[in-house]
Amino acid sequence: MKKLVILIITGFLSLNTFSNPIVSADTLRIDGKLVLWLRADNYGNGWNYGYLLGSRIMALFDNYVIPTAFGGATNYNMARQVYDQYFIVDEKYNEIAHGIVDGIEQSGVSLFSQVLNDNLGFKDLLIANSIPDFTAMDEKWKNIGPGCSNLTSWGEATINAPELSGETVISRNLDWTNNPNLINNAIIIIWAPADPDEQRWISFGFIGLFGALSGINESGIATFQNMSNYISSATGSGFYPVNLAQRNGLEKMDYNLDGICSPRDVSDAVRAHPVSSSFIIHSAGPSSLDIPAEILEIHNTFGDTIRTKINNPEYFGDNLVATNHFRLLKPPTYCVRYQRINDSISNSNQMSIVRNWNVLKTAGVSINLHTIQFVPNKNILRFSFAEIGTPAYQIEPTEVWVDTLFALVGINEIKKASAVEIVISPNPCKSLSTISVRFETPTSFICRITDISGKLIERFVYLNPTEKQVAIGWGSANIPNGIYFCSIEFVDPASGKQYKESRKIVVSK
Question: Are 222 and 248 contacting, i.e. CB atoms less than 8 angstroms apart?
C-alpha cells in the first residue's frame, strides 16, 4: 500500500494580493495526484481556482469539453442555448464561476477558445459542471455522463473484521471514458467554505469541475453520482445540475434541518429541484446512523424513490450496491458489473476494508478513472487514479488520513525530515528567484523547474560541488504567471538512497 507522500509547499496564494497573510489557496501533490485546497468565500475560491489552474481549464475545454463531451462548436453553442433556457443554479455557483473566469484572466491566460472561436464566460463553467444533466436534453448527448459502481458495507457485514468491528466502509469506481484529457486532469479539491452553516469537504473530479460527482465531508458522509439505464427526453424546466445539488447536501452542516448530517441530506438536496435526466445517487456515512447508506433513484419523468438494505436480497446482509441500473424505481435489468458484485456477496457477505475494495474490483472496467474507498469512523481515505493504458482499479491505492487533508487548509508549510534544505526567495516572485540548496556535505544534484502540468521549463546540473550550499538564480521575467515546481534530485552520500525533494514557486507579476 502506498504511503502518504505530500510534497512540501512554500508558496501560497492569498485572495487578490500576496501581501495578505491569510492563506486562501494552494496546490500540492499526493503520490503525484494534483490537490487544490481553497479557503475563501465563493467568489474567492473560484478566483483562486482559475488563477492557479487557468491554462489547464482552458486546455480541457478545447481538448475535451467542447469537441468530445458536446461534439464540437456547433453542438456546444446549442448547449449554451439549452442551458440558458432550461437550467438554474444558486447564486453561490454563479459567484464561483465568475471567480474562475476572473482568476483565469488575471493570471494572464486568454479566455479565447480556439475550438469555439469565442471567449469563455462564467456560464461555460456551469455548463461543464452540468455534463451529466445534458444526457436527456438531446440524443447526441445521451451517453456523455459517467457510469460507475459503488459498494457500502457496515454492521453485521463488517462486525467480524477486526479493523472495522461493524463500522462502515464505502468504495467507488468512477467509470467514464479513458480519454487522456480526463486522465491527465484528475484533481482532488479540499473545500473550506466561509459560510458558518457549511462544512469542509473533499471532491474527486477533473480540473474545472466544482460539484460533488464524488465527494466526502468532515461529518463522514460520502456521495457518489451514477447515471441510470432509463434516459428519456427531459420535460419541463428549472433543472438543477445534479452534482451541484449533491454538493449542497454535502456542504451544508444539516441541509434538511432534521438535526443530523446524514446521507438523507444529499438525497433531499437532489430532490429539492427538478432533474433533467436520470440518476442513481449513492450516499453513505458512519455506522452509528439509523440508515448508514441509501441510494436515491431519480428520473425526470418517473419521479424518485430511495433504496436501502431492506430492498436487498436477504443474503446481501448489510451491504448496499449501486451500478447504472434502477432496481426499485423501475424493474431491474441485467448488469454484468452488478452481477459480479452479487456473485461475490452470495459467496460471503462478510467484508473487511480489503475485501470491500476487492469485491468492487470485480466490477472494474477499462474506462475506470477513479477508485475511491472511505472509512468514515476511522477517517481513512484510499484512492487510485487511472493512468494512460491502466484503469484505476488495477493500480495500488494511496492511503491518507482525512483529517490530515483537512488540516492542510490554512497551513502554509508541512515540514518533514529531509537530507536537503531548500529555500526559495522571493516567493512569489516577479522576475528572479534565488533557490538556495543546502546539504550536510557537498552533494551532486539536478535541479528541474516544471510547470503544473509537469512540462520542463529549465534544468540545472551541479556535479561535485565543493560547498554545502549552492545558490541558483532562476529568471522568471519571461515566464507566465502561475504555479511552478522546483525539484532537487540527488543521491544521499550517507545512505546511498536516491531522493527527490520539491518546492513550489509562484510567479506573480
Answer: no
